[in-house]
Write a structure and sequence with these properties.
The protein is built from nine helices and twelve strands. It is an alpha/beta fold.
Length: 330
């Protein structure tokens, strides 16, 4: 269901669209004017932005892990529809910054709002009130007066009465174009959200080729894939301090004539003790990370992958301008 401000009623969005016309009026099938626009996904850490982006795009473009600060930079996902092209930007979760890297992540998130045609503001259905982080995001949205759709994720965890109270609470804060309660892991919400976004876009050209679903390079996708697997497999204290860099990426044909990518990557960490955890006993943890990343990359790249990974300690990388600048919004 979607609460739409223009009608002030609840409506089921999974039903077919209905066309109405006055009695006696000729019915004409008209081709819709093509629309395009940029949509920013914003919200606190671990609220489900990357999961939602992957659902909407229909491809794996953003790393997903049950850890905060999984997304570190603005990641674009492209949805091509019959009458529109929607360019999504998944931003780092809003949190209290403690390092130069954290400051850059938050800056990246907020700087993407003014350039958006539509903002998707994600919150958790389990919230009882508007917390400090969500209040800060709301203030930024109010400043820019962007068209905003409120997405309430994880509705499977709450009762309907609690959900309605949360909706009412947020409606008093901002004039949202629509309020859409969802579960980001459920495909049935995909078209509901895309339809609502498309309504709020203006006529415009396709900015990317219709075959593209992200502007990330294969190198960036490889780095994100390796980091995602490390986030999922490592202990809680380690993931925040890792950074993956692909040192070499070369395409060739093997003896059987099959295309293969040789990829060499380094996982940087903050401490020697973390290096030992990442490598694991007899190198088993590093092998698990590499094996899992390789399987994903072969599926996404459509070719065989020969992946080699190393682990190095770089204690100051979170404050290193040369590295941190890579996470700034381009």
């Amino acid at each position: 269901m979607v609460y739409n401000r223009r009608r002030y009623l609840w409506r089921v969005c999974a039903c077919p669209k209905l066309a109405t016309h006055k009695e006696g009026e000729d019915t004409e099938i008209m081709k819709e004017e093509f629309k395009s626009g940029f949509v920013t996904l914003i919200g606190r850490t671990n609220v489900g932005k990357s999961t939602l982006l992957n659902l909407l795009v229909g491809e794996k473009v953003a790393a997903i892990a049950n850890k905060v600060q999984t997304t570190r930079t603005a990641i674009k996902g492209i949805v091509n529809r019959e009458s529109s092209q929607i360019v999504f930007t998944d931003t780092p979760g809003i949190h209290k910054p403690k390092t130069k890297l954290n400051e850059t992540m938050v800056e990246t998130s907020f700087s993407s709002i003014p350039d958006s045609d539509v903002v998707l503001f994600l919150i958790e259905a389990t919230s009882k009130d508007i917390g400090r982080g969500d209040t800060i995001i709301l203030d930024k949205i109010k400043e820019t007066k962007r068209k905003t759709i409120l997405i309430i994720n994880k509705i499977d965890l709450v009762e309907r009465e609690s959900l309605l109270s949360l909706i009412d609470l947020y409606r008093k804060e901002y004039d949202f174009e629509a309020v859409i309660p969802i579960s980001a892991t459920n495909p049935k919400y995909k078209e509901i959200i895309l339809d609502e976004i498309e309504k709020n876009l203006k006529p415009g050209p396709a900015y990317y080729d219709i075959e593209e679903y992200t502007d990330q390079t294969l190198r960036q996708l490889a780095e994100e894939t390796i980091r995602e697997k490390a986030l999922k497999l490592l202990q809680d204290e380690v993931p925040h301090g890792i950074y993956v860099e692909v040192e070499k990426m070369k395409q060739r044909n093997n003896k059987q004539g099959e295309e293969i990518y040789d990829i060499e990557a380094t996982i940087y960490c903050l401490r020697e003790s973390h290096k030992g955890i990442i490598i694991g006993k007899n190198g088993e943890m590093l092998k698990r990370i590499g094996r899992s990343a390789r399987i994903d990359m072969e599926k996404n790249f459509g070719m065989k992958i020969n992946l080699k990974t190393w682990v190095k300690v770089k204690m100051d990388w979170q404050s290193n301008d040369a590295i941190v600048n890579k996470f700034k919004l381009k």
